[in-house]
Design a protein that fits this description.
The structure holds 2 protein chains of 2 kinds. Chain A is an alpha/beta fold. Chain A contains 6 helices and 6 strands, in the order E-H-E-E-H-E-H-E-H-E-H-H. Chain A has a 6-stranded mixed sheet, with helices on both faces. In chain A, strand 2 and strand 3 form a beta hairpin. The radius of gyration of chain A is 16 Å and the shape is globular. Chain B is mainly alpha-helical. Helices cover 65% and strands 0% of the residues of chain B. Classes of the chains: A alpha/beta, B mainly alpha. At the A-B interface, strand 2 and helix 6 of A face helix 12 and helix 16 of B. The structure holds guanosine-5'-triphosphate (GTP) and magnesium ion. The site of guanosine-5'-triphosphate (GTP) has 23 residues of chain A, from helix 1.
Chain lengths: 214, 337
C-alpha cells in the first residue's frame, strides 16, 4: 500500500487489530436516478444540485468501520443511459456487491431497476449482495413508486432495500453499512472467484479478495 | 497561496477547482503566451483578408501548431469540410429547429442540460448556453435518427459552443464529427467505440507491451480506462486548452489523432503506471495522468503526440478496425442478446 495515491478516506484508521476487507461494489440504474449523487454523498458528504452526467464509469473508494472489521469499498459508478448497457458487464463482473438505484418519482426507472436485478442474478457472481435503493425520497410529494411495492419486490428477490436521499443524506450511509454487514468477511469470503463470468476484473481481484481479511 | 494574475474563472468560463495549481499554470502561461503571439502573426498572414483555408500541407502544419482561438470557428469548418456539408443544405439547421420535436428526445436532452458543465459560468440557469445547447442537441437528434441523443454529445456540443460561440457552427461541427470523422461511437450499440477500444488495446500491446501486460495483470480492462476518452474526445478529461489543440488536429487529420493521444498518455506515464501495484492505485493513476503538468503543457503535449507513439499509419488502423469489427460480428452471431 506504500505507493497508494489516494486521499485519506481509505487509509486504515490506525486500529491495530481490525481486519481489513476490500469489496468491489457497482452502482447500476437508469440515467439521472442519482447514482453519482449517492456516491458523492457517501464518499465526500456532499450533494450537487446539478451533478454531471457520468460517461463510461467513475471509480471511487471509501472505507467504513464495522465492530471488528474495516471494509474498504472499491466503487464503480456507471453510466445510466441504455446504450452504455453493453459495457456494464465489465463493471459488475467480479463485483461482490451492487446497488441498483431507481428514482421514486419515476415509474420507468423502477422497471429498469428490475431488469438490472434480473441481469445480475443471471450474469453476476452468484454470491453477489444486491441492494435496491429508491432514491430521491425527499421528493415524496411526487412519488410514483410505492414503498410497499418496492419492499415486496425486494423481499421476493432477497435484496436489501431502502429508500434513500442523496440530497438529505437519508439512509445513504445506512445502505452501504447494511451491505458491508451482509458481505461475508471470512477468509474464503468475497465471492470474487465464484462466478463463471468473473473474468478479467476478477483475475486481478482474486488474489487480494481471498486474502482480504488479515 | 498567491492567486497571481489569474482569475478564478478561466477564459472559457470554467471555475478553477480548489486544488488548481496557479503556480504551474503561471509557468505554463508565461511560455505559452509567446507561442500564441508568434502563432497569431503567422495565421494572420495565412488568412489575410478574407482568404479561404484550403487543406494544404502548410495548413496542416499550422494546424498542428494550434489554431488561434478567434479563428477556430472558421478554420474548423473549413478543414473538416463541414463547410461543404452546410453549403449543400444551408437552411437545414433552422428548418429542424422549426420543429416539431419528439417528446422522448426532448426529455432526454433536457435532463442533461443542467448536468453539462455546471461549473461553467456560461452554462448556469441564468446564462444562455443551456438554451443554445438544447437547440444543437435536439436538432442533431432529429437530424440523425440512428444516433438520436447519446450522453457524451452534450460535452462535445457544449465545448464546441464555448469555442465557437455559435449554435449553428457547433451543430455542423458536431455533425461532421459524428458522421465523417469518427466511426460509430454514438449509435445505439456503440459498435465503433467498442472496436476502437480493442484497436487501442492492440496498439498498446505492440508499442508498450510491459504496460499492457501490467494493466491486464492488475485486472483493469482498457475499456474501463478509455471509454470516456473516446466518447468525449477528451473533453472533461484533459485540460481545456489541450483538448482544443487536439480537436484542431482531429478536424484536419481525423480519428487517428485519438489513438496518438491515448498512446502518448500511456507511454509518457509508463513509470507511474508500472509503479502501481494494485487495482485501486492503478485506477487512481489514470485519473492523475490526465491532469498532470505534461497534460497541461498543451504545446509540448501536442509535439509529443507526433513523436512518442512512433509510426501509426492509417492503413494499420483500418486493418485493425476491420479485424475487430469482424470478430465482434462473429461473436454477436454466436451469442445473440
Ligand atoms: N431531490 C433530489 N435530487 C437528487 C437526488 N439524488 C440526485 N438528485 C439529482 O438528480 C440528478 C441526477 O443525479 P446523478 O447523481 O447525476 O444521477 P446518475 O444516476 O448518476 O445519472 P447518470 O450519470 O446519467 O447515469 C442531479 O441533478 C441530482 O442533483 C435526491 O436524493 N433528491
Ligand atoms: Mg452518474
Amino acid at each position: 500500500m506504500a505507493t497508494n495515491r489516494t486521499g485519506g478516506a481509505q487509509r486504515p484508521n490506525g486500529a491495530p487489530q481490525t481486519k481489513v476487507c476490500q469489496f468491489k461494489l457497482v452502482l447500476l440504474g437508469e440515467s439521472a436516478v442519482g447514482k453519482s449523487s449517492l456516491v458523492l454523498r457517501f464518499v465526500k458528504g456532499q450533494f450537487h444540485e446539478y451533478q454531471e452526467s457520468t460517461i463510461g464509469a467513475a471509480f471511487l473508494t471509501q472505507t467504513v468501520c464495522l465492530d471488528d472489521t474495516t471494509v474498504k469499498f472499491e466503487i464503480w459508478d456507471t453510466a445510466g443511459q441504455e446504450r452504455y448497457h453493453s459495457l456494464a458487464p465489465m463493471y459488475y463482473r467480479g463485483a461482490q456487491a451492487a446497488i441498483v438505484v431507481y428514482d421514486i418519482t419515476n415509474q420507468d426507472t423502477f422497471g429498469r431497476a428490475k431488469n438490472w436485478v434480473k441481469e445480475l442474478q443471471r450474469q453476476a457472481s452468484p454470491s453477489i449482495v444486491i441492494a435496491l435503493a429508491g432514491n430521491k425520497s425527499d421528493l415524496a410529494a411526487k412519488r410514483m413508486v410505492e414503498f410497499e411495492e418496492a419492499q415486496a419486490y425486494a423481499d421476493e428477490n432477497g435484496l436489501l432495500f431502502m429508500e434513500t436521499s442523496a440530497k438529505t443524506a437519508m439512509n445513504v450511509n445506512d445502505i452501504f453499512l447494511a451491505i458491508a454487514n451482509k458481505l461475508p468477511k471470512s477468509e474464503s469470503g468475497g465471492g470474487a472467484g465464484g462466478a463463471g463470468g468473473a473474468r478479467r476484473l476478477a483475475d486481478g481481484d482474486t488474489p487480494r479478495a481471498s486474502s482480504c481479511c488479515k | 497561496m498567491a492567486q497571481s494574475q489569474f482569475s478564478p474563472v478561466d477564459e472559457y468560463g470554467f471555475e478553477r477547482q480548489d486544488d488548481f495549481d496557479y503556480e504551474s499554470y503561471e509557468d505554463f502561461m508565461s511560455m505559452y503566451l509567446k507561442v500564441l503571439a508568434t502563432r497569431a502573426q503567422k495565421w494572420a498572414a495565412l488568412l489575410g483578408e478574407g482568404k479561404s483555408v484550403k487543406r494544404t500541407n502548410t495548413v496542416k502544419r499550422y494546424v498542428r501548431k494550434g489554431i488561434p482561438s478567434e479563428h477556430r470557428p472558421l478554420v474548423w469548418m473549413a478543414i473538416s469540410e463541414a463547410e461543404i456539408m452546410k453549403e449543400q443544405q444551408p437552411d437545414l439547421y433552422q428548418k429542424i429547429l422549426d420543429g416539431p420535436f419528439e417528446k422522448e428526445l426532448v426529455d432526454l436532452v433536457k435532463t442533461d442540460l443542467p448536468r453539462t458543465f455546471p461549473d461553467n459560468i456560461f452554462f448556469t440557469k441564468e446564462a444562455n448556453h443551456q438554451t443554445h445547447l438544447f437547440n444543437i442537441l435536439i436538432a442533431y437528434a432529429h437530424n440523425n435518427r440512428v444516433v438520436g441523443y447519446c450522453q457524451g454529445l452534450n460535452y462535445i456540443a457544449g465545448l464546441l459552443l464555448l469555442a465557437t460561440k455559435s449554435e449553428e457552427i457547433s451543430f455542423w461541427l458536431l455533425k461532421v464529427l459524428v458522421e465523417n470523422i469518427l466511426p460509430d461511437y454514438y449509435t445505439r450499440t456503440m459498435d465503433g467505440l467498442i472496436v476502437d477500444i480493442e484497436v487501442l488495446s492492440e496498439l498498446v500491446k505492440s508499442k508498450v507491451p510491459d504496460v499492457h501486460q501490467h494493466v491486464i495483470n492488475l485486472g483493469l480492462p482498457w475499456a474501463v480506462i478509455t471509454t470516456k476518452w473516446f466518447v468525449c474526445l477528451f473533453a472533461e478529461v484533459l485540460p481545456i486548452e489541450t483538448v482544443l489543440r487536439i480537436w484542431d488536429c482531429l478536424f484536419y487529420e481525423g480519428s487517428k489523432i485519438l489513438f496518438r493521444v491515448c498512446i502518448t498518455l500511456i507511454k509518457s506515464n509508463r513509470g507511474a503506471i508500472m509503479a502501481c501495484n494494485d487495482f485501486t492505485s492503478l485506477a487512481e493513476c489514470f485519473k492523475t495522468i490526465v491532469k498532470n503538468a505534461s497534460a497541461l503543457h498543451c504545446h509540448e503535449f501536442m509535439q509529443a503526440i507526433f513523436k512518442v507513439p512512433g509510426t501509426l499509419s492509417n492503413s494499420t488502423i483500418t486493418k485493425l478496425r476491420a479485424r475487430f469489427a469482424k470478430q465482434r460480428r462473429e461473436q454477436q452471431q454466436k451469442e445473440p442478446r
